[in-house]
Structures are given as structure tokens and as C-alpha cells.
Automatic annotation (TrEMBL):
SMART domains: AAA (SM00382)
Gene3D superfamilies in the cross-refs: P-loop containing nucleotide triphosphate hydrolases
Family: Belongs to the ABC transporter superfamily.
Region forming the signal peptide: none
Superkingdom, natural source: Bacteria
Keywords annotated in UniProt: Amino-acid transport, ATP-binding, Nucleotide-binding, Transport
Name under which the protein is recorded: Amino acid/amide ABC transporter ATP-binding protein 1 (HAAT family)
Amino acid sequence: MIGDNKTAAPAALQHSWDQDAVLSVEHLTMRFGGLLAVNDLSFNVGRGDITALIGPNGAGKTTVFNCVTGFYKPTEGRIVMRHGDKVSDKLIEDATDSGEQFRVEGSSGVFLLERMQDFQISHRAKVARTFQNIRLFAGMTVLENLLVAQHNPLMLASNYTLGGLIGLPGYRHAREKSIEKSVYWMEQVGLIDRADDPAGDLPYGAQRRLEIARAMCTGPHLLCLDEPAAGLNPRESSELNTLLQFIRKEHGTSILLIEHDMGVVMEISDHIVVLDYGEKISDGDAAFVRNDPRVIAAYLGVEDEEEVEAALEDDANGDAASTGAGLKSNDEAGGAK
Ligand SMILES: Nc1ncnc2c1ncn2[C@@H]1O[C@H](COP(=O)(O)OP(=O)(O)OP(=O)(O)O)[C@@H](O)[C@H]1O
């Protein structure tokens, strides 16, 4: 039985993402009528990690994203976002039992995302996302797209009144800060020279970078990226890797990404969670996942369990070559999608 290999998976608590999780997805289930898109899924996203959610088409990845970011209400399960590194289990349980959407005590905050609306998840829980299909304001300039992302602090500074129009000092200061932040991110993503161009005029790869810059302008603790490398050429993919590593290292932002480009996934991920038919089939670092026969079977469509059994035995004997020497990049394997 394939399931019997569960003992081969890395022991749960030994990983950094289990010891210091910024996000915990717990027993998440999502049904669409009779279709079970996600089934009892649990995994952690480590603070400051780049975590990839991968799996064949239709595995349930985007559904998980939509649950985390509030676009779907899960059928069952809890999704816990933590602010601060000292969030106790008691704080989480107290918030859960009280029926609250979130609870903040000092520098610690717990946010139960399955209870929150999407705008609260972005505004309060500080979870930002990009989409599989780019969703920029095509007619607005690059700079305007970044300023719109900072609408909330600007409204707050104007006291939700005419404070902005009459130029209250607090509002002017907040507006300067927004422009500074926009300039900073345009520089980081190489779009400073295109600040005044309509976003819709940018080449595809630049639009993807602008989406990431826009998400970063909201100051997220967790950045969720849905297929950020889709449609990028190898040079642009490599620039994306550099950008994501910069965001994680310099800003401490945790990143959760869905990606089909195995080159990107294997190069930059600290942690990879693999779904197939809505269930988790593997969870570990890149070295573990790329040689996990269950992952290889799911990607290459090995239907005969005996083949996987044989691969597992060979793997136990240290012979990864029998499974095709592990999961390869899209270029090598001819595309995982
Ligand atoms: N709103 C919806 N209504 C009904 N079924 C849905 C809905 N959203 C997703 N599904 C179904 O749930 C399953 C998982 O879809 P999902 O888009 O999450 O997979 P995925 O892993 O992101 O796939 P891909 O890699 O192709 O984007 C699929 O069978 C899909 O048809």
C-alpha cells in the first residue's frame, strides 16, 4: 500500500516550520457540492520561510489559497495566522473558544482566517496575495497601482473625512510615506523608469513583478503568490527567484507560493507541501520531496501501485535512479503542468 510509507515521512516536530509557524492550516476540507476539492489538509508555513504548495493540475492548490485568503469559506478546518513569535497555544485556543475572529495581546496576535472576510485578512491579518491571472488596474499607471494598495493607511490618516482634500499635515505625511514606499518597491522590481506608464502597457514579466510590488506595499507578514513564474522566460524566472529571496531576507516576509515550475520551486523553497486529489502526499524540504516516490508517481502519472512500491524499496536501498532520479525541473521533465 502506498499509504504505508507514511512512516518514511520526516517526523513532524523536527522541522523549523512546525516549531515556529506563521500560518497553520489545520484539517482543512473544502467541498463544492459533491466534489471534495481539499480533504483534511494540515500543514504549517514557517516564519520567514519560502513554502511551496505544489501538485498536479486540479490537486486543490488554488482552493487552499482561496481559503487562506478568504475568497472561500472552508467547509471545515481552522486556519491560524500568527503575528509575533510568542503566540501561545492558549491564546489560539482562547480566541477559538470565544468565537472571536482574532485576538491581539501586546505584540502577539492570532487571526482565525476561516472566520474573517477577505479584506480583513489583508488589512488586519496582513496576508497579501497575487493571482494566477494578473489583476492589475491596467489603465492606471505603475505608481498609481502601488498607491491604491496603500489606500487603507491613507484613509486612516485623513480620518475618513475631507482631511485629505484640505491637506491635513497627518494626511500629507502619510501620502509622502506612501510615495516613498512605492518608489522603493518600483526600484526593487526594476520598474522605476516605468512609473508613469499604464500598467497594461508593461510586458508580461514586468506586470508579474508589479503585482508582487503592489502586494508588498501593504506590508504583509505572509505573501501568497499564485503561480508567479507562469509565462516567464528563464531570465525572468531567475530574476523572480532573486526578488523572492530578497523579500524574505531583507523584509522577513514569509512566502507561500503555488508554482508549477519545478526549477523555481526546488531552487528557492525551504519547505514544500505536495497535494494530489486534495490530499497531502508529501511534506518536507526540496531534497526529501524531489525523491519521494509518491510525488514522482503523482507527477508522472504512475498508476500501478506496484511500480511505486518497487520505487520505495529501491529508495530505501538508496537507489533514487530507479524512480527517474527524482523530480526534475520543467525543462528537464518536459513540464509538470
Ligand atoms: N468554485 C469552484 N466550484 C466548483 N469546483 C471548483 C471550484 N474551484 C475549484 N473547483 C474544483 O476543485 C478542484 C481543485 O481545483 P483547484 O483549482 O484548487 O486545483 P489546482 O491544484 O489549483 O489546479 P491548477 O494547477 O490547474 O490551477 C478541481 O476539481 C476544480 O474543478
